[in-house]
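can u do me a favor
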């Protein structure tokens, strides 16, 4: 039987077993959430030996070269030495500069990291608070020295409980940056943009909007926000006032099915950015495809719910 060495323990495990399941079964407290390779909560570092990783592309090549792996994706093929991601040593301390609860129980969190964090609009960052880790989309541009997050704390999850207790001046940690399907690209100049968000799916789209404004995108930019409470209404109104090509509208949830059915393309040359729940993203993607939008011009990201209780 293969032997895993981790946290000064030696664990006998089954060959072919999923690494995350093997560690949890042996009582190793591995943070995890989506089990799909999206949240990056289950990072482990393989310092010796090998793991069977069917999806190395899910990690940044630099991090992968350093031995980082996703425990929910790897299977055991032999002896290996592992180390859990420890935010006290591997993540960056950050101070809470703003902590405001907005409409719909959305927390607007602004953090000041102790050292620079390189990222692009539309990417995610790992947030560590009180032993709980979750990935969140960055709702800001790089270069300001601050990280902005929009977090739904309406649910009774472990992270929501932690975030309801923090305040300005508190210390948290931020980890690896990953993702990036919803960033603005300079080659989109000369093409209309359509953005559709449900709830805090607005967060990465807000960073894309700021990047498009900064790039002086000159073609029409339309945002449709689906939800009963638009927590970012004042900021969207201000953006529309200073950027003539930008318009936005809110659709309450009861009206959304009809609005989706009536949706038409402004142009088949448009690029569409969609973010929200998996059901929302699938429904919008199907409607836009049927309306004639080429698949290569559809950029989507779905928020996955934890597959195990928080």
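np, heres the sequence
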């Amino acid at each position: 039987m293969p032997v895993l060495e981790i946290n000064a323990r030696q664990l006998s495990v089954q060959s072919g077993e999923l690494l995350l399941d093997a560690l949890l079964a042996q009582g190793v407290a591995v943070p995890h959430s989506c089990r799909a390779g999206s949240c990056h909560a289950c990072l482990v570092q393989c310092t010796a030996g090998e793991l069977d990783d069917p999806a190395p592309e899910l990690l940044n090549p630099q991090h992968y070269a350093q031995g980082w792996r996703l425990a929910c994706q790897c299977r055991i093929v032999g002896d290996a030495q592992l180390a859990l991601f420890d935010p006290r040593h591997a993540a960056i301390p950050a101070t809470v500069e703003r902590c405001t609860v907005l409409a719909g129980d959305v927390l607007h969190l602004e953090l000041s990291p102790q050292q620079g964090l390189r990222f692009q609009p539309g990417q995610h960052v790992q947030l560590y608070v009180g032993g709980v880790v979750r990935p969140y989309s960055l709702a800001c541009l790089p270069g300001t020295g601050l990280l902005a997050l929009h977090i739904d704390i309406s649910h009774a999850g472990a992270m929501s409980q932690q975030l309801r207790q923090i305040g300005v001046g508190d210390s948290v940690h931020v980890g690896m940056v990953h993702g990036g399907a919803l960033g603005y690209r300079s080659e989109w100049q000369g093409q209309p943009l359509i953005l559709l968000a449900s709830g805090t799916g607005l967060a990465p789209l807000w960073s894309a909007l700021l990047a498009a404004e900064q790039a002086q995108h000159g073609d029409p930019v339309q945002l449709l926000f689906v939800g009963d409470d638009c927590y970012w209404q004042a900021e969207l109104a201000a953006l529309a006032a200073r950027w003539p090509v930008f318009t936005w509208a809110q659709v309450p949830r009861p009206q959304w099915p009809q609005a989706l059915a009536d949706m038409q393309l402004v142009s088949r040359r448009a690029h569409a950015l969609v973010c929200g729940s998996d059901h929302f993203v699938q429904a919008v993607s199907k409607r836009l495809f049927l309306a004639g939008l080429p698949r290569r011009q559809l950029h989507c990201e779905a928020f996955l719910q934890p597959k195990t209780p928080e």
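The CA atoms of residues 21 and 227 lie 37 Å apart. hope that helps!!
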